[in-house]
Write a structure and sequence with these properties.
The protein is mainly alpha-helical. Helices cover about 70% and strands about 0% of the residues. It is built from 13 helices and no strands. Helix 3 crosses helix 13, helix 7 packs antiparallel against helix 8 and helix 12 packs antiparallel against helix 13.
């Protein structure tokens, strides 16, 4: 008996710690690595924006307006990425704009997920009229063009950062509610739930201990893709003039400021557009890998 166990010992692999397994799995997937690096760089830029920005983002220099990038004729290293129509440093505004994109994306995703989880739990647990009403709300939300709803709410409440976050959260809660509702409906039919209820365990404890942990993986994946959509939505609303205060640098606002100079001074629009594209690409690449990592059926 002892010899057979000894023979099997080389075949038994020790379990890796979760964080080690996480990065070990990622390094074999180039898309996940690229997405992770992009996200880390954007977060680093947002945190240390004050240190990375060469000039105050709202400092106007009319004599330096519409300067090209440093390698172009008329450019200078003082303004490496040029200036906008008011003479503001584009590099500083892009760096500080990362804070808005990340803060709006993270806050709206957390708020939308919180609303969706609560609504999904209520719909699945209570059933009956509550389920019908919440399902009706979800269907109305999905059938109504979201951009029109966002435009209406932003115009009605005069925009602002808090209003923007709430509007974007309203647009994303349905995804989480559907996931949680499905999990609750499937768990309610399990034998152990009936046994737990018969033994006096409250349904709320069952939901929080068994339903939410099982739904945690899909919620994380949905949140990653929703954040990319949220950043695009924020840029779209800012481009239309219904985002945050124009004095605060936003990539969408920078696109709107440069659209009148698109042909002659193309870099004013190109650079914030690239910042949006790279950020969304990084989040989508990381989210795509995260889906494979968290779904055992997709692992090799």
């Amino acid at each position: 008996m002892n010899s057979s166990i000894a023979d099997l010992e080389p075949l038994i692999k020790p379990q890796k710690k979760p964080i080690i397994h996480f990065f070990s799995h990622m390094r074999h997937h180039s898309s996940g690595v690229i997405g992770f690096i992009i996200i880390v760089l954007i977060i680093f830029t947002a945190i240390f924006a004050d240190q990375l920005a060469r000039k105050p983002y709202n400092l106007k220099a009319p004599k330096e307006r519409l300067k090209p990038m440093w390698f172009m004729e008329g450019g200078s290293t003082e303004y490496p990425l040029g200036t906008d129509s008011l003479g503001r440093d584009i590099l500083s505004r892009i760096v500080h704009g990362s804070r808005i994109s990340l803060s709006v994306g993270i806050a709206s995703v957390f708020l939308g997920a919180g609303i969706g989880i609560v609504m999904g739990l209520l719909a699945g647990f209570l059933g009956g009229k509550a389920d019908s009403i919440i399902n009706w709300l979800m269907n109305v939300q999905l059938s109504f063009p979201y951009i029109l709803l966002a435009l209406f709410l932003m115009a009605a409440f005069n925009g602002g950062l808090v209003t923007l976050i709430v509007v974007l959260a309203i647009g994303g809660w349905v995804r989480y509610a559907r996931i949680i509702r499905g999990q609750v409906l499937s768990v309610r039919e399990e034998t152990y739930v009936t046994a737990a209820q018969a033994s006096g365990i409250r349904m709320l404890r069952i939901l929080t201990k068994h339903v939410l942990p099982n739904a945690f993986s899909p919620i994380i994946v949905v949140a990653s893709f929703t954040m990319a959509d949220t950043i695009l939505s924020e840029a779209s609303l800012s481009f239309l003039g219904l985002g945050i205060n124009p004095a605060i640098p936003s990539w969408g606002q920078m696109l709107a400021d440069g659209r009148d100079f698109l042909q002659a001074k193309w870099w004013i629009c190109l650079l914030p557009g690239l910042a949006i594209s790279v950020t969304v690409l990084g989040i989508n690449l990381f989210g795509d890998w995260l889906r494979d990592y968290l779904d055992p059926r997709l692992r090799l």
